[in-house]
Structure formats: structure tokens, C-alpha cells
């Protein structure tokens, strides 16, 4: 998919600035209230179009139930609704896409770990959410933009419980895109 790199990077930077404002000011921010005055924005890798890839979708008509472990040692049940196949760093890779059973939306939840996890990025992994504009079918393509990978709220406060990426979503490469830790 051809995109205007400069326009895409400008939109990405504006989305990041908007998120920083939310984290600094909103009452639902995961940043504890007593730390918000010192909050000067999240850390991000520079926008990199290399980490914006097209993935081929395999839809699971009868999704398998999967219990994902959480940051507070519980489990939460998700449905493995699709598998995404894509090329990154010269190899074909796959990620599982999930949806909670009660979720009627088309949103796909894609938690990931990679070689940056625990070093340059949050040790509990990062998330991506994909918002297809229609129901997906086998063979459809969807854009995976790792520049949008973000740390879950539990990275900022222990009051949140966050699903951890299952081993099926551990990438054996460094994805230097999206949110990072200092």
C-alpha cells in the first residue's frame, strides 16, 4: 500500500501528542494523579514505515477460546478469531488476533512481545488494536502498523490488570517502533 510517508509520520506524531495530553490531563489517565504534574510525555521510537506492513488474514470461523495470563496473575478469556501473516525483517511471521467473547465489534486485539520487550519496551509486552471497516474474510489484507504499538495501562499503574501476550505472539525480532520506555 502506497502512502505519503511525510503525511503518515505527521499524523502519527499528532496522535502521539493527543495521547500525551490525555495521559497528562484526563481523569481516566493511567498516570497516578500525584505524578501527572511531572509527566512530560511518553517515549516513542521514531516513526518508521518499515514497520507498517500488510498482513494476510486467516479467519477462524469457530474461534478457539484462549485464557491469557494477566499482569496480576489472573486469566482472562479471549477468542482467537484470526491469524495474521506478514513479512518483517526478511521473514514471514504470524500473530494471533483476539476478541473478547462478549465483544460484538470488529476490533482485533493483537498483544505482542519482541526482542525489545523488557529492554527498550515494557516488560509485559505491547498491544495493537486493528479496526477493520468490515468483516474480514480469508485472504483479506489488513495493515499492521507497529508504529502504533502501545504499552498497556498496567505499565503505568499497578491498579490495572492487563493481558500478557501469549507465546504465539512472541516475535523473534526487535520491533523498534511504537511506544518505548526511557
TrEMBL record:
Top-level taxon of origin: Archaea
Disordered: region residues: 21-43
Gene3D superfamilies, per database record: 6.10.250.1680
Signal peptide start-end: none
TM region(s), chain numbering: none
Pfam families the UniProt entry points to: DUF1684 (PF07920)
Protein name in the entry: DUF1684 domain-containing protein
Origin species: Haloarcula mannanilytica
Organism phylogeny: Archaea, Methanobacteriati, Methanobacteriota, Stenosarchaea group, Halobacteria
